[in-house]
Write a structure and sequence with these properties.
single chain; 6 helices; about 0% strand
């Protein structure tokens, strides 16, 4: 049996998904990873990995690159008809797993870099997911 955390009155999609990921079971995280594996190419996740870790230690330009990489991932997930909560969880799984997939030289704490940017990644992902195509 999988128990989801109680939703607080101040939580929205970002907060809900964050709590779900923080208290997620192995099964939930595995499902999110399967969503990533099913819908994001190695090229897309590599782009995300490099951009995520570069953004954590670099300039505004790298943050723009990270936002672009987030957009690429979200577009692929939306085209694959992945729902918004699944998309948020998939993006979190992608970011958390990025520390394992990509370790740039001199980055002794890649997971801390991801943690610093996770909330921003989710905000961009939600914005991109609901962006009008007009």
């Amino acid at each position: 049996m999988v128990l989801l955390p109680a939703l607080g009155k101040d939580l929205g999609a970002t907060g809900d998904a964050w709590r779900m990921m923080q208290g997620s079971t192995h099964v939930q995280l595995q499902a999110a990873r399967e969503t990533v594996a099913s819908h994001l190419s190695r090229e897309t996740t590599r782009h995300f990995d490099v951009a995520l870790h570069s953004a954590a230690v670099s300039s505004i330009q790298s943050m723009q690159e990270l936002r672009s990489a987030v957009g690429d991932c979200v577009t692929a997930l939306r085209v694959a008809d992945v729902g918004p909560v699944e998309m948020i969880l998939a993006m979190k799984a992608c970011a958390l797993d990025s520390a394992k997939r990509y370790s740039p030289a001199g980055d002794d704490y890649p997971a801390s870099s991801v943690d610093m940017l996770l909330e921003q990644i989710v905000k961009w992902a939600i914005s991109e997911y609901y962006k009008s195509d007009s």
